[in-house]
Amino acid sequence: MSQYHEPVEELDSKTRDITRMINSLKEELEAVDWYNQRVATCTDPEARKIMAHNRDEEIEHAVMSFEWLRRNMDKWDEEMRIYLFTEGSITELEEGGAGEDSEAAGSGEDLGIGSL
What we know:
116 residues, mainly alpha, 5 helices
């Protein structure tokens, strides 16, 4: 099955690179999951250490892929700035929005945008 959902010849090179990176990211995350399951069930301590090392290498690759996407595809940077390296409830961060005072955003104050 093709990784493309549109005719590849109609996609520009940047879009094809983004698709490559997203597919690479999926593969890295799948490898992290596989190694993590093996670490959890392995009974040999030395084998477990090796697989944990391999899992952590795959995490490094996945994070590098995320960073490339942040730099090269619209919206990634904005969303990462909202959700990454934060404290508290992840789902409540969206309610406050990027750069807004979450206390004021959650207080019901009128933001001056009228009734939707």
